[in-house]
Every structure is written in structure tokens, then in C-alpha cells.
Amino acid sequence: NAGVMQNPRHLVRRRGQEARLRCSPMKGHSHVYWYRQLPEEGLKFMVYLQKENIIDESGMPKERFSAEFPKEGPSILRIQQVVRGDSAAYFCASSPTAVGEGQYFGPGTRLTVT
Amino acid sequence: ILNVEQSPQSLHVQEGDSTNFTCSFPSSNFYALHWYRWETAKSPEALFVMTLNGDEKKKGRISATLNTKEGYSYLYIKGSQPEDSATYLCAPGDSNTGKLIFGQGTTLQVKP
Fold first, then answer.
1. Interchain pair A43, B102: CB under 8 A
2. Which residue from B20, B11, B27 is spatially nearest to B92, judged by alpha carbons?
3. Are B100 and A103 inside 8 Å of each other by CB?
């Protein structure tokens, strides 16, 4: 059973470009969480999705950030018009249920904005 | 909003020493307390998911206890080895959505 997959592992974008980060959950997992680690900070929750639904986006910046988890395919975290402050490591985690079980993390995508 | 505190922030021990870390959190609105082990350039690795007051879990030389009434959990490592060097994170899981609220972590360095 493959683990959580994220790609790309490293992404470099110039200011103003768009960044698309992909996350394929573990097989059988329908709950996906995105977390962000800014430089010198801990992991912070961004958004929680189930298939085709955003359940909790309380940790997402109000502008430029969006997330989706379509019926088919990976979950996508999209950042439009990136700025230097978006440089961070973005992790996704998947779980078979919302509560009661652990979350399994992917290797992360390290975004660098130049 | 949960505020999760971990102490100490960092720890340096000799191989063979036993050590423990603390995680404290507000004792409400969570369904489970998670412990993760995070090595540099890798993904966080789940160690324990603890739900019951007084729960104690063990995995090899690592064990953890949970006190939900007073809002703390301890992680113990017996006979530390260099391969135990990592950052150890605790995170209560929200009772409605399951989202994890992470502490800043305790970074352990074990010298051979």
C-alpha cells in the first residue's frame, strides 16, 4: 500500500506566478488535510477536505489560496500570484476517517518564491 | 483555538540515557492526542494516537501517557540511541474535523 504521495517535491516560482501542489492520499483514505510549515515555525493547519467537499478552511489565507479534492484524481492546493512570504514546506496528510484514527503524512512540497 | 506547549524545546543526551518530554494543551474540544516523530527532510511519522484518560502506549523503547483531565501527555524514551535523534511533535486532534494543532516540538539529539 503506497503511502501519501506529493508532487512536486520542490517547486520554484517567481513572484506573481501560480503554484500547484498535488497530494494523492493513501488508498482507501477519503480525508485530506493540508498543513504548512513557514521558516522557523511549526506545522500549521490550512484546510481539510473530503471528496468534492471543503469541510474546514479556517487555516487558509483569505486570498490567493484555494484547495480542491475532486471525485477523481489528487487533491490540489493552488496558490495564485505567489509572494516571497508563501515560501514554505507544504504537507498533506490523509486519514480513513475524520476522527479516531491517525493522519499519515506525505513527504511535503518545498515551495521557494524568488 | 488550542494552544499546545511542548517542553523542553531541545534536548541533548548521551547514548543510553533515558529521557522524557512534556506536551500540555487545553483539556477540551479534542478527540485524541497524537505523537509524531519528524526527522529532517522526511515526513512526520505517526507514533501514537491516544484517546483515553490514563491511556499508556508503548512502541519498542518509546512510550507515552495521557492525562486528559489536566491536559498533558508525556513521551518517554528508554536507553536513547543516536537513531532516536529527531523532533517529536504532539498534536491534539479537533473533535469535529480531526484537524491537528501542533506544538512547536522537542528536538532531541543523542550523542554516541
1. yes
2. B27
3. yes
